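Morning. Coffee machine broken again, so started the prediction first thing and wrote up yesterday's gels while waiting. Chain of 331 residues, entered below exactly as on the submission form.
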Amino acid sequence: MGIKGLTQLIKQHSPNAIQTTNLYKLSGKRVAIDASLFMYKMLINMRGPDKSYLTSEDGKIVSHITGIFYKTSNYLALNITPIYVFDGKPPPNKGPVIKNRQDKVANAKLSMETATSEEQKNNLEKQTIRLTKQHVDDIKQLLELMGVSYVQANGEAEAYASEMCRQQMVDYVVTEDMDTLAFGCPRMIRTCLDKSIKRKDIISVLDLDTILSDFKMTYEQFVDMCILCGCDYCANIPRVGNKTAFSLIQKHNDIETILPITKNVPDDYETKYKESRNLFTQYHDKLDMQQLSIHHTSWDLDKLHDYLVNTCSMSEQRVHNSIKKMKQGYK
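Came back before lunch.
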């Protein structure tokens, strides 16, 4: 879910914080990538002509492997260094959001039984996707063969990635989750926000300092605003949406001042907003970048080729071309 309505607030109040640029301009930069989000996207979008998963000859699902290979090889071909960050155990505060997702999966599975068209079934099937340990292990194996580093977080991947960017281990975080900004990420890359632009190589870069300046907020006030908007750890107060949250923080500065003058505040809200604040800042200056456990390997392009072509049944010519571009572009 991220932060409800945050993108709209930035578009309205801080349009200069959104830079539309070409991916190749990031040549020479290091990016932390939210691995779970990429895996979900590839499982949803990498499909065959019949809208089913891409599979190997023995029936193994390889949509996630195929998609992340081509995405990652494109970064390497542009001399961009990716570091994938994998989610650890979610905090207890995220329980209601996880339960809601599980309910949606169950409802989608039930609806598939009565769907009357293939299009309906395909759309519902995409709503049932859940990441498994096998998906994660597949991608870790792929990254090892590609010589791409990864980090196994102890908590939320966005929190780790944001701190890596805050401490300048990486230059950007690549994700679609807007709560990355609430975690303090200075520069976030996401799919181009200008929907009139269809090119996949055009991206949006969001700059947190510009947002804070245009919002006329400190980082602490911004975090409070994000919590009021509604986040994964704390639902919004009834009748308090993103616009109201923005104006309340600008006028009253913090949640403590706002609650006494706000109606319909849930009984457990005080506990949840304080826990949310702690979660958004829990890794600030707490992760030692020198001690961070980063899994490094050197690429093995022969084994990579064999794995993708013979194990995953991917196009030999496409794999060959991608590996060739990787070798030419990455320094």
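The chain has a mean pLDDT of 89. Going to sketch it on the whiteboard this afternoon.
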